[in-house]
């Protein structure tokens, strides 16, 4: 079975309908939908039924909507907005048969004690998970390399506090590697039931006390950056993980190239590193 998915950020400058066609023509069976592209599509009067027709026409499965960000907030108004967004996107996900939505913690709690960060974020994610359960939707937490929640162990601690069975992890090679505290050996010991997705990618990193530009640091095709990709692939396989693997190329440089060429290059890289 084809387990290859393409993250819509890989070809960020194209629209959602084009993303789906590119996925099909470049050898991917699935797609991670960028939320901003989804909103743009629906804001123009298109419906989820229209979107599902395109997905079905090209035989491309939606595996995740990316993303709901700032889930670490301790601002009551902001949290209310996030919960409303969760309800809306969960309904959309249900209607297009998309099983998962990604959650991203960022910098609102930076500098606070760890017990506060994990407690507040876990509480928020628990509320998000409870909403998703009404629609049969799961949530994948992504540790972010430059945020307080930047390692596998920290993210799992937060997931445990959330205490909702529909909240799990995405294993993003770059974020975990660049975060500097997670090893492939830790990933290999992860229960596969806790892994909802893989972000297959390469890149570089820099000191934590400097300003990071993700579109530069992640702007490398697999094999061009500094991540020992083979070790991370082997670690994921050691868990018995058997769902989709999503390629993600966040690159200001490659966003200006032909989207079919970029997607084809990533598809071939997945064959080389994962499926051969």
Question: How would you sum up this structure, described in words?
Answer:
By secondary structure, the chain is of the alpha/beta class. It has a single domain, classed as Divalent-metal-dependent TIM barrel enzymes (TIM Barrel, Alpha-Beta Barrel). The chain is 45% helix and 15% strand. Helix 4 packs parallel to helix 5 and helix 5 crosses helix 6. The two termini are 13 Å apart.
What distinguishing features does this structure have?
single chain, 276 residues, alpha/beta, TIM Barrel, eight-stranded parallel barrel, 11 helices, 8 strands, 45% helix, 15% strand
For the record, the CATH architecture stands as Alpha-Beta Barrel
Assign the CATH topology: TIM Barrel
Structural class: alpha/beta
Helix percentage: 40-55%
Strand content: 15-25%
Please count the helical segments.
11
End-to-end Cα distance, whole Å, is 13 Å
